[in-house]
Design goal:
It holds the Pfam family OGFr_N. By secondary structure, the chain is mainly α. Helix content is 57%, strand content 4%.
Length: 167
């Protein structure tokens, strides 16, 4: 069977790769070896995108030294956005929900605050944000996005009245 680096319980672009079962996910999560390999694969992909995992406990991220060159690649090739969505979903499946939050916030910061990834902005708002499993953390991220989105009146990812009252 073909396998995926970041397997999910849904079909992806590779029609030959079968979706994971809940039993397989539980088995993966119980295996230290599998989870260590998963984190290695995550760090490898982050490196490809110009990002470093600063803290394995929390999932904190920062730009890598080669970020300019790698961000150029991210801006040029939109297929990376599908991979990032897949990685985010897989992080949730594997129990790394804090990692999801850090990766989404990283992309929101780079797209909305730093404006280094203009071609990733739409995916960050339409897809990345909504992979975050924790409803509370997702709300925090939507609020963060709303605070930095310009023009704020065009923000469509949450109800304005709730965003204004948030916290």
């Amino acid at each position: 069977f073909p396998f995926r680096l970041f397997p999910l319980r849904e079909h992806g672009m590779n029609w030959r790769a079968r979706p994971l079962t809940c039993q397989e996910i539980q088995a993966f999560r119980k295996s230290k070896e599998v989870m260590d390999r998963f984190i290695r694969a995550y760090k490898l992909m982050l490196g490809f995108y110009g990002i470093n995992l600063v803290n394995e406990e929390t999932g904190e991220l920062e730009r890598a030294e080669n970020w300019r060159e790698r961000f150029e690649n991210l801006n040029r090739f939109s297929h990376n956005n599908l991979r990032i969505t897949r990685i985010l979903k897989c992080l949730g499946e594997m129990g790394y929900e804090d990692y999801q939050v850090h990766l989404v916030k990283f992309f929101l910061t780079e797209t909305l605050v730093e404006e280094t990834l203009p071609n990733v902005k739409r995916s960050a708002l339409d897809y990345f944000l909504f992979t975050v499993r924790s409803k509370e953390k997702r709300r925090e991220l939507v609020h963060y996005a709303w605070q930095h989105f310009r023009p704020q009146s065009s923000f469509v990812w949450g109800p304005r009245d709730k965003l204004q009252k948030y916290r």
